[in-house]
Here is the input.
Amino acid sequence: MRSAPPFRQFVVKVHGRCDLACDYCYVYEMADRRWRSRPALMSERTAADLVARIAEHVVAHGIERVEVVLHGGEPLLAGPARIEALVRAARAVVPAAVGFTVQTNGVRLDERFLRLFAELNVRVGVSLDGTKAGHDRHRKRHNGAGSHDAVAAAVRKLAGPDFRHIFAGLLCVVDLAADPLATYRELLRFGPPEVDFLLPHGTWSQPPPGRRPDSSTPYADWLIPVFDEWYGSGAPTTSVRQFSEMVTLWLGGASGVEGLGPLTSPPVVVGTDGAIELSDIVAAVDPSAVDTGLNVATDPFDAVVLPEQVLSPLCVACPVLEACGGGHPAHRYRAGQGFAHPSVYCADLYRLTSHVRARLAHDLAALR
Ligand code: SF4
Here is the structure.
């Protein structure tokens, strides 16, 4: 166990339910069932405690800027008034710059929310899985209908001249059934500043779709053509987060993405009931691994103690550890054995990080 470094990113679950029923959702479709007993909406009292704890933390560590990510469930279910109150309170009380991003499924992202976010300078990230067919295969409403049309309409507004400055980017879960380049090009049609490709969550006990326990590399095979198109496009106007971070890591920089390289400043998660957690994604596979027993009502963020990250000996000896980092901690899990394994995506990560390194090495050699 070790003391946590100062936190600079706070993931805040302002609402703990969702108006979609995506089949790969790590919040509602995996082992963590605690959301059922937690309040749907973060109370005003908990929001006030949260703001006071962030203020206390930045004073204690002389932090000049923090980022708050409004998350869920679906954060827009909290309603505009609650979100506005939280943003204004944080900016009034915390003696540091407080950047806000809301990560939404986009279904409720209407003109009223967009105007509010523009007024408050809250950046907006939207989950969109590429083409209509790809998106609607997984991102369904509770009645089974696809959500693509509503989300695409919202993203078109967000990408338009009135709101473009608050467009944070698009988040897309990789689906092996979808064509990678068609997916990537569809996302680019909205002109996002950033695209974030997420691997579907899974573990050694509950492997992700299509990830067999062998040396095949279906996810690397999917991502490599996208990397090559992105990398080969010269000066892309859209950053692809995983690729940018991998390039940065291979060039000796630090990672800002959980699950890629060693993370310098991990985020901390605050639930609707004020509970402080280390990762809601790890909680989805083993809630006890990230439960701190702390709550913003009674405890400072400085009371958080990080568990020692135990890497598998295979990862420690691995030539791509620098860029891979052993994969996302949740993906290393095997029931009854814990997290000291390579990622369930090991073969994919090895191939992808090696490919990125080879492209960089080739170009650096040419420069010399
Ligand atoms: S590629 Fe596999 S063995 Fe190497 S660091 Fe990543 S998860 Fe570990």
